[in-house]
From TrEMBL:
This is 2-oxoglutarate-dependent ethylene/succinate-forming enzyme. Gene3D superfamilies: B-lactam Antibiotic, Isopenicillin N Synthase, Chain (2.60.120.330). Pfam families: 2OG-FeII_Oxy, DIOX_N. The keyword Coiled coil does not apply.
Length: 327
């Protein structure tokens, strides 16, 4: 494929509707060939999405001291400053320079009595909210509700496309691992070729739903091809396959490298939403994705183990401090 196809959900999130089978077929064709698709005809309200973008812009316009007061914690929630992540686990490039971006990471909200939260299990902690922006939390929670419903519908379409019942994978998302990353990319000098907003990488998990502003800058590299643009298309999401979904499907769906280079001359904002299963989910080849001619390509892996290994290597705050020099 030389371009990213558009899959129109026709305004329905019902996996039993007649249109769902057509959407599932189109989705499979896109995700098995290029690993990306534009999703149109979804049910995320434009006003809900724009309120989330407005909240993100206000957060990033806050003072550095305010943002740093929410410094990312051990549960991977909070503010990550400019150039604080380097994608050393990239399998498509040797990455030595940090990403030129800053972000606020919000993960799945947990009630105060959640057993995992009370036990302090990995990734099970409280979100950090900017209390100096009273409208921020309700805007983001409203957005998460709508984009999460879209993500769960897409998981059902993927199940249908793989010859499974629509709800076959639902139970893995009863206690999901989700990330909403409010990203800000500053403008990059046109002559700066080596610096990049987000270095070439593949995503870790199951699916990513990206809302991007009109700045452009997202690029995708299909198998055996060169980088192609993924320009903004009004009222669509950019959907892509993550590493765990590629493993789950024995490579039938592909996790494709992508990167961000902000040459717009202005600030770029995006809202990627990552919908992943529970930390304890065992990712092993699905039964409809293997046969005598196609044995499983990968051993089973616990999603949480894979995730933590990637985070520990890519984010500065998770790396052990170097010992102080002796005078």
């Amino acid at each position: 494929m030389k371009h990213i196809p558009i899959v129109d959900l026709q305004g329905s999130l019902d996996a039993d509707a007649p249109a769902a089978q057509q959407s599932a077929r189109e989705l499979f064709e896109a995700l098995s060939q290029i690993g990306f698709a534009y999703i149109a005809g979804h049910n995320v309200a434009p006003a809900t999405r724009e309120a989330a973008f407005a909240a993100s812009r206000k957060f990033h316009a806050s003072t550095l001291a305010q943002k740093q007061s929410l410094a990312i914690n051990a549960f991977h929630r909070g503010y990550m400053g400019m150039a604080s992540s380097t994608i050393v686990t990239s399998t498509v490039a040797k990455v030595t320079r940090p990403n030129m971006s800053e972000s606020l990471m919000l993960m799945h909200e947990l009630p105060p009595d959640d057993p995992g939260l009370r036990a302090g299990l990995p990734m099970q902690g409280p979100n950090q909210w900017p209390d100096w922006l009273p409208g921020f939390k309700p805007a983001m929670l409203a957005y998460v509700r709508e984009v999460d419903a879209l993500g769960r519908h897409i998981v059902r379409l993927i199940a249908l496309a793989l010859g499974l019942p629509a709800t076959a994978l639902d139970h893995h998302f009863d206690h999901p691992t989700t990330f909403l990353r409010a990203l800000h990319y500053p403008p990059q000098p046109p002559a700066e070729d080596e610096q990049i907003g987000s270095a070439p990488h593949t995503d870790y998990g199951i699916i990513t739903l990206l809302a991007q502003d009109d700045s452009g800058g997202l690029q995708v590299r299909p198998r055996g091809g060169d980088w192609i643009e993924a320009p903004p298309i009004p009222d669509t999401y950019v959907l892509n396959v993550g590493d765990m979904l590629a493993r789950w499907t024995n490579g039938r769906l592909v996790s494709t490298p992508h990167r961000v280079i902000n040459r717009s001359g202005g600030d770029r904002y995006s809202l990627p939403y990552f919908l992943d299963p529970s930390m304890d989910t065992l990712i092993e080849c699905l039964p409809t994705c293997t046969d005598a001619a196609h044995p499983p390509q990968h051993p089973p892996v616990r999603y949480g183990d894979y995730l933590l290994e990637r985070l520990n290597r890519n984010y500065d705050y998770r790396k052990p401090a170097e010992p102080a020099a002796v005078a």
